[in-house]
């Protein structure tokens, strides 16, 4: 692999990591808003908001990043995770 290809691959990885971190922050802000809701409604409300307002790609990236490691999310986001619809690539 050429140095240019390695640099591009590395930069893409960093960009992906930054994107995942941004999605994590955004989801955290949504969860912070809905944590005032009754416990039985909060996770559903978080997932509903993400499903309505995030693109399929955003949801797909978020699920790909955190389905395998939900422990990286706060409890409310962990409860909402199974209710988030998978997105499409592209």
Short descriptors:
globular; single chain; Formate dehydrogenase subunit delta; mainly alpha; 90 residues; Formate_DH_dsu
Please give a quick description of this structure.
The chain is mainly alpha-helical.
The total domain count is: 1
Approximate helicity band: over 70%
Q: Would you identify the regions where 5 or more consecutive residues have pLDDT less than 50?
A: 1-11
Secondary-structure-based class equals mainly alpha
Total number of strands: 0
Determine the mean pLDDT.
87
- Outline the biggest β-sheet: none
How large is the radius of gyration? Answer: 15 Å
- Taking the alpha carbons of the first and last residues, their distance comes to 26 Å
Output the number of helix runs.
4
Tell me the overall shape: globular
Order of helices and strands: HHHH
How much strand content do the residues show?
A: under 5%
């Amino acid at each position: 692999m050429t140095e240019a290809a390695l640099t591009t691959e590395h930069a893409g990885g960093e960009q992906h990591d930054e994107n995942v971190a941004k999605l994590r922050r955004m989801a955290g802000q949504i969860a912070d808003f809905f944590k005032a809701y009754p416990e039985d409604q909060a996770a559903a409300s978080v997932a509903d908001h993400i499903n309505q307002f995030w693109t399929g790609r955003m949801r797909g990236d978020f699920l790909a990043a955190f389905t395998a490691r939900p422990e990286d999310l706060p409890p409310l986001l962990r409860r909402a995770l199974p209710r988030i619809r998978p997105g499409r690539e592209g």
